[in-house]
């Protein structure tokens, strides 16, 4: 296995991109990554697209060929494939790209994530989101994705005394970070009161506990580490890539306060990287719902089980806290174009490790981690990155 | 949703027919053909098993932003029910005011409409729960 | 030749009822339509009516009632050979309610099933068919259900009474708790109340629904039945009649010579409204909830269009060991209630035009 590095990153603004189709944003993110990597399009040997739901959102499958084509690569006839693992599609695409380069099958590959969610009405979105869970046995019964996370939140409150304020401190922090990210969907801070008084979605979670409906795309260029310096002054090494699955349905989990796929994937990743959670300076985690960030920072090993809420409220996950979590604004403030999210997390970590985090830069960041999750944790993908 | 996709699950939806692994006696719902604990040893030993329909609320939420089939009922209670057999089921709780629900509450299964394919399509029936 | 049946040992083996928990008051309906709620209340003798939740229909109500019936007995559902569901609000115009009910209570697939419609007496027509099948030996047990989520056009007088509920009787010859001594019907072509195919709400002939329809059919049927049985009103411990409102059954009972103590137990419409196909059957269920061995019951259903099915019944000694407590009583269903305002009622009943 070869060492793999990120040599270029790019993304679009996230949000309601009314004037742009999935073709536009896929191309924009890819092009900016190509320019950042100082490569020519002809050097891309393969393309991996993370996308969750183009089939149900815009009636379009076959995104590999589509993005390749509209990125101007059709005449090169490179292999291109769409990777789907619900909300973890982007992270899984990154992992597939990583495997291709690490194995020696390809040298330079592009990994992109793209989702266009605003081409359907808001009423259709819960059904699309729930397709990342067990639609047939939980969705049909009336469960929305938000309701499943709400039941996890209720259990977390019941078992560990987590409070509504603990949970609400996640979106407050993430909005504060998003306000410093020019590509974030929401660039405005919010107060605890805003979260607590926001209209209910699934009690105890309100509108401000839920990631928004977003359009957006992100891309990274991967290359073998030994040639990375040829293209990039600051290549970022991917020191570990790990993924794990769990039961599709929440009803089959042994515990609602633990996400085993996160535990398994992160344990593997830390082992491969040869480091412990303490060494992570900056992490992008999957706060599709506020409670998910609390459970994630516990199961990643940053904090003890049950302590994720108090840790967040006390500022331990703020920029330059014990570990800086979701400096981009996370899914909540940066936006959550589902298939793009996992790749956008890698883009943010690469920027932080390069020292290009602008106003939200974490001091002297050396190790970064991304956790991208599908559904309620049916899939988790963890990558660990290191500044060279 | 096409009719066959729902129809083939009627026994489970109407009567909570799951499976029991004859190897480890573990109960599963909905039916599955391989026991995740016994795997190969369970092949051919996953027998139909009817749940009693009785259980306790393990967790719950009040849904205010539902999918289209549930619009008329919002806000409604969704819960995770721990059945007597140990298996958990996600389902709606009816005949209960949202402010009365609590973890540990005893409930039983009932048959209700789950949704329909518009005004002219097939109606889907299945289990929900209500306080005992 | 007159339709009738000397039941001999045929009777009710077990029974169960179901009434949704929501209610609306006549005052609330009257408030919306600018009518006099108090006058409606006393005129119809209806103090509240049941309303189904949006996820309840004739099929779910029939399943509940049937499961309640099964819970009280040791009958193996596989021994049920016929399922008939009588209603005028079947969820499907074409596709039987009965097949879903049969599957949901776990019958075998080797059964005969059909949906019945005869306005408010489709359920008792199902009982009569079941008696025939059982006494001929074609089936061991037959399930007869009367259930409705009846419709009354907004602003129509029917809106004060049209309600929801169901009752299920399993008919058999073994361990019957109530012997049906005789059934007898009286039927004529009388267009007092109807609903055309495809119409959402029924129409009715106003005061024509009274004397020539309800009173003529119920009274004639009851009198003929008592004549054939050589019985008089005082021979019965209980009497129950179809109850489109509280007033009609009270008046017909008095005209026939029954006293309040005989008919009050089975009079449930004042509290739950007119459950149509279930109306007399729920009233009978309320009687069976308290009846003792040896007591005799007269029941007469009425369906518009028009006809009456009469039943002369006697509670058997089996009632003493019958597990009545295994399912809720009609009283329990009547007493659990959650009041709705007209807005929620309109939403629950699908009276609001929604976006597709």
Helix content range of the residues of chain A, please? 25-40%
In this structure, how is the largest beta sheet of chain C organized? 10 strands, mixed
Structural class of chain A: alpha/beta
**Strand runs of chain A, count:** 12
Please tell me the overall pLDDT of chain C: 96
Averaged pLDDT of chain A, please? 97
What is the element string of chain A, with H for helices and E for strands?
A: EHEHHEHEHHHHHEEEHEHEHHEHHEE
CATH superfamily of the largest domain in chain A: Thiolase/Chalcone synthase
Describe this structure in words.
- The complex is a heterotrimer of chains A (388), B (132) and C (356).
- Chain A is built from 15 helices and 12 strands.
- With 388 residues, chain A is α/β, with parallel strands linked by helices.
- In chain A, strands 3-2-4-7-1-8-12-11-9-10 form a 10-stranded mixed sheet, sandwiched between helices.
- In chain A, strand 5 and strand 6 form a beta hairpin.
- Chain B has 132 residues and is mainly β.
- Chain B has a domain of 80 residues: Beta Barrel (OB fold (Dihydrolipoamide Acetyltransferase, E2P)), CATH 2.40.50.840.
- Chain B has a 5-stranded antiparallel sheet. In chain B, strands 2-1-3 form a 3-stranded antiparallel sheet.
- In chain B, strand 7 and strand 8 form a beta hairpin.
- In chain C, strands 1, 2, 5, 6, 7, 8, 9, 12, 13 and 14 form a 10-stranded mixed sheet that branches. Chain C has a 3-stranded mixed sheet with strand order 4-3-15. A two-stranded antiparallel ribbon of chain C has the order 10-11.
- In chain C, helix 6 crosses helix 7.
- The N and C termini of chain C lie far apart (53 Å).
- The model of chain C has no long low-confidence stretch (mean pLDDT 96).
Q: What's a quick, concise take on this entry?
A:
Chain A is an alpha/beta fold. In chain A, 39% of the residues lie in helices and 19% in strands.
Write the layout of secondary structure elements.
The complex is a heterotrimer of chains A (388), B (132) and C (356).
Chain A lengths: L3 E8 L10 H15 L9 E5 L3 H5 L4 H11 L6 E4 L5 H15 L5 E8 L8 H6 L4 H5 L5 H16 L3 H15 L13 H5 L3 E4 L1 E2 L8 E10 H7 L4 E10 L14 H14 L8 E3 L5 H10 L8 H6 L10 E2 L4 H5 L3 H17 L12 E8 L4 E9 L1
Parallel strand pairs in A: 2-3, 2-4, 9-10, 9-11
Antiparallel strand pairs in A: 1-7, 1-8, 4-7, 5-6, 8-12, 11-12
Helix pairs in contact in A: 1-3, 4-15, 8-12
Chain B lengths: L2 H5 L2 H6 L1 E5 L5 E2 L17 E5 L3 E10 L12 E8 L4 E6 L12 E11 L6 E9 L1
Chain C lengths: L3 E3 L4 E8 L3 E3 L1 H8 L3 H8 L4 E3 L6 H14 L8 E7 L10 H9 L6 E5 L5 H14 L5 E9 L14 E9 L5 E13 L2 E2 L8 E2 L5 H19 L9 E4 L5 H10 L3 H4 L5 H4 L6 H10 L7 E8 L1 E11 L2 H4 L8 H6 L2 E2 L2 H7 L8
Parallel strand pairs in C: 3-15, 5-6, 5-7, 12-13
Antiparallel strand pairs in C: 1-9, 2-8, 2-9, 3-4, 7-8, 9-14, 10-11, 13-14
Helix pairs in contact in C: 1-2, 3-4, 6-7
């Amino acid at each position: 296995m070869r060492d793999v590095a990120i040599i270029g990153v790019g993304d679009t603004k996230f949000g309601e991109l009314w004037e742009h189709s999935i073709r536009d944003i896929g191309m924009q993110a890819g092009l900016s990554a190509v320019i950042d990597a100082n490569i020519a399009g002809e050097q891309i040997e393969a393309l991996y697209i993370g996308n969750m739901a183009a089939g149900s959102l815009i009636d379009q499958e076959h995104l590999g060929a589509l993005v390749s084509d509209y990125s101007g690569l059709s005449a090169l006839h490179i292999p291109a494939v769409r990777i789907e693992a619900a909300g973890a599609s982007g992270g899984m695409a990154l992992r597939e790209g990583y495997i291709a380069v690490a194995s020696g099958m390809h040298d330079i590959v592009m990994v992109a994530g793209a989702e266009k969610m605003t081409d359907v009405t808001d009423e259709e979105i819960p059904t699309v989101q729930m397709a990342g869970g067990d639609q047939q046995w939980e969705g049909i019964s009336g469960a929305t994705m938000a309701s499943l996370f709400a039941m996890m939140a209720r259990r977390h409150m019941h078992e560990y005394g987590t409070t509504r304020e603990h949970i609400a401190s996640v979106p407050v922090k993430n909005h504060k970070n998003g306000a410093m990210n020019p590509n974030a969907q929401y660039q405005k801070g919010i107060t605890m009161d805003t979260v607590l008084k926001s209209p209910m979605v699934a009690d105890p979670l309100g509108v401000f506990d839920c990631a928004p409906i977003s359009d957006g795309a992100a891309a990274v260029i991967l290359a073998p580490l030994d040639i990375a310096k040829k293209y990039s002054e600051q290549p970022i090494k991917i020191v570990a890539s790990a993924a794990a699955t769990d039961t599709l349905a929440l009803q089959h989990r042994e515990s609602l306060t633990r996400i085993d796929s996160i535990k398994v994937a992160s344990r593997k990743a830390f082992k491969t990287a040869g480091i412990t959670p303490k060494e992570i300076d900056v992490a992008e985690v999957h706060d599709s719902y506020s409670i998910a960030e609390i459970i994630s920072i516990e199961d990643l090993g940053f904090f003890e089980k049950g302590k994720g809420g108090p840790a967040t409220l006390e500022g331990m996950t703020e920029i330059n806290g014990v570990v800086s979590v979701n400096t981009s604004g996370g899914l909540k403030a940066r936006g959550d174009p589902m298939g793009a999210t996992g790749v956008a997390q890698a883009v943010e970590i690469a920027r932080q490790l390069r020292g290009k985090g602008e106003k939200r830069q974490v001091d002297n960041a050396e190790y970064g981690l991304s956790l991208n999750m599908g559904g309620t944790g049916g899939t988790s993908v963890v990558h660990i990155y290191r500044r060279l | 949703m096409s009719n066959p996709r729902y129809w083939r699950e009627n026994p489970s939806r109407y009567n909570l027919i799951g499976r029991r692994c004859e190897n480890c006696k573990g109960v599963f719902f909905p039916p599955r053909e391989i026991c995740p604990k016994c795997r190969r040893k369970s092949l051919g030993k996953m027998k139909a098993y009817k749940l009693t329909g009785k259980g306790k609320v393990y967790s719950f939420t009040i849904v205010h932003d539902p999918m289209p089939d549930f619009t008329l009922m919002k806000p409604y209670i969704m819960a995770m029910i721990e059945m007597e057999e140990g298996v958990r089921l996600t389902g709606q709780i009816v005949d209960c005011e949202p402010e009365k629900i609590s973890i540990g509450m005893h409930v039983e299964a009932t048959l209700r409409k789950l949704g329909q394919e518009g005004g002219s399509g097939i109606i889907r029936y299945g289990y929900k729960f209500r306080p005992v | 030749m007159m339709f009738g049946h000397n039941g001999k040992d045929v009777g009710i083996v077990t029974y169960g009822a179901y009434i949704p928990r929501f209610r609306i008051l006549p005052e609330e309906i009257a408030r919306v339509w600018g009518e006099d709620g108090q006058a409606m209340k006393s005129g119809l003798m209806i103090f509240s009516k049941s309303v189904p939740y949006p996820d309840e229909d004739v099929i779910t109500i029939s399943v509940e009632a049937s499961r309640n019936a099964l819970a009280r007995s040791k009958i193996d559902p596989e021994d049920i050979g016929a399922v008939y569901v009588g209603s005028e609000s079947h969820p499907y115009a074409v596709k039987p309610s009965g097949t879903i009910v049969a599957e949901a209570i776990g019958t075998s697939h080797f059964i005969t099933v059909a949906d019945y419609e005869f306005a408010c007496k489709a359920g008792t027509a199902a009982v009569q068919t079941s008696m025939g099948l059982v006494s001929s030996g074609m089936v061991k047990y037959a399930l007869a259900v009367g259930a409705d989520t009846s419709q009354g056009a907004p602003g129509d007088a029917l809106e004060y009474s049209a309600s929801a509920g169901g009752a299920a009787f399993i008919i058999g010859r073994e361990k019957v708790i109530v012997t049906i001594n005789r059934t007898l019907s009286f039927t004529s072509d009388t267009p007092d109340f109807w609903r055309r195919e495809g119409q959402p709400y029924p129409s009715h002939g106003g005061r024509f629904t009274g004397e020539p329809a309800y009173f003529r059919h119920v009274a004639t049927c009851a009198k003929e039945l008592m004549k054939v049985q050589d019985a008089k009103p005082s021979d019965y411990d209980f009497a129950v009649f179809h109850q489109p409102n509280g007033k009609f059954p009270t008046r017909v009972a008095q005209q026939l010579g029954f006293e309040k103590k005989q008919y009050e137990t089975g009079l449930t419409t004042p509290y739950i409204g007119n459950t149509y196909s279930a109306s007399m059957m729920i009233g009978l269920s309320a009687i069976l909830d308290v009846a003792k061995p040896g007591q005799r019951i007269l029941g007469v259903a009425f369906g518009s269009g028009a006809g009456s099915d009469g039943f002369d019944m006697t509670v058997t000694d089996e009632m003493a060991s019958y597990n009545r407590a295994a399912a809720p009583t009609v009283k329990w269903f009547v007493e659990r209630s959650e009041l709705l305002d007209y807005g929620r009622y309109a939403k629950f009943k699908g009276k609001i035009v929604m976006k597709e």
